[in-house]
Amino acid sequence: MDRKSISKDNQEPTAGQEEEEEWEEWEETPDYIRSEDYNKQEEIKKNNPDENEREEKQKFIDSEILAKGYEPQEFFFYLRNFKSKIGIMQNHSFLDDGQDLDNWQLGELKLAIQEFLDFQLAQELQNQEEENKENPSRLLFGQGLKQNQMEQIMPFLNRYQPGPYLEVTQLKQTILNRNSRKIFIKLTHAKVKQQTEFLFIKSNQLSFNILTIPMKWDVERNESDIYQLRRLLQYQFPHLLIPPLPQRQEYKFTQKSVKKRCKYIERFINSVCRSEQLCTYQILVEFLMIKHNNPKTFQEKIKKEEETLLKQRQPLKPEASELSSLYNKLATKLQPMAASFNLPQFIESFETILQNLLKLSVDIKTKSDVLCQSFLKLQEVLVKISQNHGDSVVCQLEIFANLSKAFGTEGFILSQQGEIIQDALKYVKYNLEYIPELKELQQKAEYAKYKFERSEKNFANKRQKVVAQLGKDNKNQVSEQLVDSLLPVEMKDLERQTQFMNFFKNQVFQEVKRMQFEMEYEGMKNNFRDMIKKVTAGLNQRNIQWSSIINALEKVKFENL
């Protein structure tokens, strides 16, 4: 899905010009604008049938999914699940390959798209059946008007149906955006600096180098820069869930706290870079790419950007004009699963599950330590038994000595595995930081609903006035189109606010899915993979230990014969 760029020449820039040349090549010059690059690309297409097939697959997706108004994110999740289902049937793992076009045959992709369309049609028919059971005027009036008011106005109204799209600002491609699924961020050279602030007051500041792979960008940033970047992302993308950061720590830093904070910051930036939309933000690109001789210059630029956005926008009261998309349009058809999704209930359940998980991790560690102590006590008893037999019974001495060694090792391994499991489950503690962000997203969705209800009420009141002015005797002679033409501004505003409300209702559901399967999936998978490797190593060690005891016992038995 990412376009492959062709460099103009192979000359290596000097150290001082490297970042500037990359910036100009990727950001200031659009793709294929130079004729020589275009000719090279065309030549590659002729000699490479795979590239032609990739374009054919992309065009098929554009015509069957994007042009028909389906949500791209939902379709990509479906592709990944479809691919994983095939992988399970064939005893393979495709969990990470479903969103890459190169891993799909054209026929296989068409089959997946057809199944996706059939599923969407079934959901639509089910939704229509549920709607027909309710009052046909509910889309227009909701529950804001009484039944007698409905009877007076309904003869002049069409059933209200908003358009399928909401036109928004189209985001521009960047080098980050084109490589968002390949990027990995690593923090290095973390150190605590002491800086002087107002009235010569000194404070500690955590700084580190941010290494971006595979671009090999390496820039130095402060912890305060990260928090400022996050605020900018919140203002610039009010409809997206921005990964959280823990509360700042400005005075006391220890080696353990520095390591922990770097881990959280690294996790934050990696989650940000997994979003194609967030990666279009030029400030983010410059934040990761450009080395500044004077860091204060860039900090002042970020500060000015924040001040500008604050003047234009209110954080918890987004407007439709502030929305953006990679495709210049946002789907506003209310999805059945999004309509039935209850975010407050999800937040409550999400928090309860995480809290219980963390409590269980502590319980496992505590009980593993208790069990370890029991094994060590058993080891002491076995040692005393072996010593009590003396040298007269050598075979029994060796048996109890080997058993005491095995039980002692068993106790230490159990304690170690309890600690491994606790550390792995601590990883989800970071997810509790998402709860305030989810609540803010809910507030934004409620604000969109409030704007719709206000527009709906205004529209209904003016409709009543129009009907009253026309007179009851003329009702049958007045067309619906005439009544609509008398309120063009109100009609347009109501349609836009309905689209805005439907979009945010869909977006809440999509962002919760993105949080679980895109923002946190990779990190969670790697975390528990490491846990399983460590636990498996412990199990292997226990197996070797007990196998050696069996061999020792067999040897003792043979000698006594």
Automatic annotation (TrEMBL):
It comes from Stylonychia lemnae. Residues 1-11, 31-57 have a biased composition (Basic and acidic residues). GO terms for molecular function: phosphatidylinositol binding. Residues 17-30 have a biased composition (Acidic residues). Residues 1-57 are annotated as: Disordered. SUPFAM superfamilies: PX domain. Pfam families: PX. It comes from the Eukaryota. Residues 186-295 form the PX domain. This is Px domain containing protein.
